[in-house]
Design a protein that fits this description.
Length: 418
């Protein structure tokens, strides 16, 4: 029986494609450094993708001269650190008189490889195309990719060559929407969450989809976005009590062996900022905020201040038609979030940013040498800026507020330093 996904799951899975750049938990670009030896990161602003050096120099906006493409987003790095996957979409086919469930997944998508050095742009995944709607989920290596293929509203992941040939089932179409994929450090196993009829579950399998293990699943819990530890021995993921929190604002940090053993919570009382929502009434944004491993084997996360509440209140009584469904109520906002490092051995928390009341730090990740951390910072009711700091929290500095100072999001490191 076909399992048709909800609008919210669908849009979240599409958004996850841009997160695939950093989701593998392997350091992107470990093969070669930038020509100038500087660390660089990607980010998005007002629907555009930019790149900047970690010292604030070298700002570049990506503009591709391809007809009929409405949006572009990065979605993966190759091992040479020079080539980047991009996803583009033509104008959406849903709209007035064309219901989302019937038309959105018919919107044509295109996958491209862009060379950062010479500017070449080459379309891939064109052979043996199974549907108009393709979204990259994970680069397994420089020759093969896991691709989300959506047909008749049902999502399924296939493993295929970069040109689209030799497509093989990785998941089944009748089991739910899989996304949030993470590749083990040795490149042999994949962890992911599955939005199934039985709830959000965490699974691990071989890269061909075989030898599957359900790590955890409970209908009362939303388990989300697993990530491998640097030594490949552990997974972290989020645990959201969605029945109490329908907006998915908060979660706890969960630790498990990849075989489902030795499971334990590292936080309590839904301490992490999950569905990050920010901005003003006329300029707002949101997106899942996920913990990541640091290079020293600890976990970087956005930890809430006691009693924190965002300015954007979720409206559960109203149909969720845009994967946002919130009203702006800055007068109810309180607290904030700070970047913390959690030791998985004992759950000890080290505060890094400590910005104080009314400031929300999130989207944190450290550089490949572990010396710097890039993150977003937004004051209540304002759009975020990108900041960089030293790994111990010193040297915090704002780098950009994006196009026309209207906000930035999704910073992710591009190349290894030096």
């Amino acid at each position: 029986m076909k399992n048709t996904i909800s609008r919210r799951q669908f849009l979240a899975a599409v958004a996850a494609a841009s997160s695939a750049v950093s989701a593998s938990c392997k350091t992107a670009g470990q093969g070669h450094g930038a020509k100038n030896g500087k660390a660089r990161f990607f980010f998005t602003s007002q629907g555009k993708t930019g790149m900047m050096n970690a010292d604030g120099t070298g700002l570049r906006w990506f503009e591709f001269d391809v007809p009929k493409q409405a949006t572009w987003q990065p979605c993966g790095f190759f091992s040479d650190g020079r080539r980047v996957l991009f996803l583009s979409m033509e104008p959406r086919l849903d709209g007035p008189g064309k219901p989302f469930g019937e038309y959105y997944h018919k919107t044509p998508c295109h996958i491209w490889v862009h060379d950062l050095d010479n500017g070449a742009l080459t379309e891939i995944a064109t052979k043996d195309r199974m549907a108009p709607f393709y979204t990259p989920q994970l680069l397994l290596n420089d020759h093969r990719i896991l691709m989300q293929v959506v047909r008749d509203g049902a999502g399924q992941i296939f493993s295929m060559n970069l040109d689209g040939s030799d497509a093989r089932e990785f998941t089944r179409a009748d089991e739910g929407m899989p996304y949030g994929l993470s590749l083990s450090p040795d490149g042999r196993r994949v962890a992911y969450h599955l939005a199934s009829p039985q709830g959000y579950q965490i699974w691990v399998s071989d890269v061909d989809g075989g030898n599957r293990v359900k790590v955890i699943g409970d209908p009362a819990h939303l388990y989300f976005c697993p990530c491998w530890s640097p030594d490949g021995q552990w997974l972290i993921f989020q645990d959201c009590l969605y029945q109490q929190d329908p907006g998915h604002d908060w979660s706890d940090l969960f630790l498990s062996r990849p075989d489902g053993s030795e499971q334990r919570l590292l936080t309590k009382d839904q301490a992490l900022w999950f569905a990050a929502s920010y901005g003003s009434a006329d300029n707002h944004g949101n997106g899942s905020n996920t913990p990541v491993w640091s290079r020293d084997g600890k976990v970087l996360c956005a930890h809430r201040l006691p009693g924190a509440k965002t300015a954007w209140e979720f409206q559960p009584q109203r149909p969720d038609t845009d994967h946002f469904n919130r009203d702006f109520k800055p007068e109810l906002a309180r607290g904030g979030t700070e970047i913390c490092k959690i030791d998985p051995k004992d759950g000890a928390i080290t505060k890094i940013t400590q910005p104080g009341e009314g400031v929300w730090d999130f989207r944190q990740s450290d550089s490949s040498d572990g010396k710097q951390i890039v993150f977003c910072r937004a004051k209540t009711g304002e759009s975020p800026a990108i900041w960089v700091m030293n790994a111990d929290g010193t040297g915090q500095r704002e780098l950009t507020k994006g196009l026309d100072d209207r906000g930035v999001d999704h910073p992710r490191w591009v190349l290894r330093e030096g």
